[in-house]
Design goal:
The structure is a homodimer. Chain A is of the alpha+beta class. Chain A is built from 6 helices and 13 strands. Chain A has one domain: HIT-like (HIT family, subunit A, 2-Layer Sandwich). Chain A is globular, with a radius of gyration of 20 Å. The N and C termini of chain A lie far apart (48 Å). Chains A and B meet through strand 1, strand 2, strand 6, strand 7 and helix 2 of A and strand 1, strand 2, strand 6, strand 7 and helix 2 of B. Strand 2 of chain A pairs parallel with strand 13 of chain B.
Amino acid sequence: MTERRLDPTTGEWTTFATARQDRTFLPPAGLCPLCPTTDPARPTEVPRDAYDIAVFENRWPALSGRPPEPDLDGTSLYSVEPACGAAEVLVFTSRHDATLADLPVAQVTKLVDVWAHRYAELGARPDVAYVFAFENKGEAIGVTLHHPHGQVYGYPDVPPRVAIEMRAAREHLARHGTCVWCDVVAAEEADGARLVLQGAAVSAYVPFAARYPYEVHLSVRRHVGSLLDLDATERRDLAEVLSTVLRAYDRLYGFSLPYVLSVHQRPTDGGDWDAISHLHLELTPLHRTATKLKYLAGSETGAGAFVADVRPEDAAGRLRQLLS
Amino acid sequence: MTERRLDPTTGEWTTFATARQDRTFLPPAGLCPLCPTTDPARPTEVPRDAYDIAVFENRWPALSGRPPEPDLDGTSLYSVEPACGAAEVLVFTSRHDATLADLPVAQVTKLVDVWAHRYAELGARPDVAYVFAFENKGEAIGVTLHHPHGQVYGYPDVPPRVAIEMRAAREHLARHGTCVWCDVVAAEEADGARLVLQGAAVSAYVPFAARYPYEVHLSVRRHVGSLLDLDATERRDLAEVLSTVLRAYDRLYGFSLPYVLSVHQRPTDGGDWDAISHLHLELTPLHRTATKLKYLAGSETGAGAFVADVRPEDAAGRLRQLLS
């Protein structure tokens, strides 16, 4: 059963993909489905004996261009729709044991280029309203394959967290006449207390009201809506800042730090988003100490109210000390 | 540092309470701070040699009636306020090794009465806009003390998830002239496919667009905004339905199932909520199989878009089989 259902008590869609219950779960390195195919009798997901970066449709897609018919009819109370959209896997490198932090900046720049390419191609599809590139890294985040990879989803609507950001940005624009993200980057660069790293085009900082421990946002200083608006130098700067922050993350506790990486770009549904869409990346780790995680418990899950244990200025100071 | 900061890019507050980093973490049973005080030389948090149910202020409060001054001044971009409100611990029983599912219905009814009492008392405070009772159960949820207990927060505003529910309910009311929760309970009782248990006053069902595996909502059939609107028979029915569902949860995988329990009631800020506030409880477990958790990863954390692996009708059918 693969379908989307609308919750009338929240106005939010849940995407169901029950086949994902059987997806490959932490296979041994010799059976990694993301490694190159070295034995034709045992093909992996990538039918090449070598590759640089690979993108393909997820074998257990939550969203797809040819979704099955829904299991259930909708009612006047309950809406149901096919799970239209896209779900792609993006393999960062053929090196099974690497992490994104280990890769040369040139390879991370290629990843940024692939993100831009997928944004353009999926965003052009009429059934895709929002292109979302992300990486789930580490078992603490629930990753099911260790080979360094991310994913790109094409949602048929603007998803809830992005809608919340867009509403806040529109209110800020109406009140102040400016883009809130432009104002935030300028404020963080001027203040410096939460700044982790200031690149030529991109700054990395711990957000003022960070919800996760050691959360870091990377924002382009210039008001741009997507990676397509960046020139080659800016893309390389983004890759370099990202790479530097990830290396600092790995020094924080002396192990490769799990996190979610989210790329927020302009919706692709043709709406009036230019003035309020500002390209940024969000890094959200869960470790509040080397051995303790920030769990989303009652306050976060049931009320949506985040309680944080780490002072943003302290997190930024510690990360600055760990930069190389 | 204890303070609330507003994120201008989302319009949401984060509550910081850095002293919570040092809170008691999974102490051995002999040092449980929630057990009765048996040795006066080593007092626990409950200064009695026996008790039935106990409520007291959290020793590491996120929110309090006498919050310290914020660490930082606000700016035109960034708002800061003292962390006003309440954070209470509610111990369900003096029996260290019990769980809520183990307790007699009479004890669960007392818990419902205490929730109602705390709702009345905290809700009457001018600095409390929303009273939120919840339980974090199990290490998978991040619980730091095993003794069966929950918490009651008094937020100074209506928290984000509740605001989302209220907006959806107001839109439903404007369109259909009815309370969406009343319509949902009626639809679930009529359909039956997702119904887990129908009590005299309260029904338990897996929500149509459930975000968590084996998520169950308990809604009062009658349109009531808070526990204060229930009579003694209805409160006992709520306790009985809750107790029955929790026992089925523990049979699901053969171990005591971790979950978050959230009690959603009418805001207490004096606003116009009566027509759209409908008392309900949300149970959100994380286990999608006996050994695998539903993680909130990229799609949920970065985009707010839930991808679910378990078909709600299957979850309800399985739970029905496990009722005693």
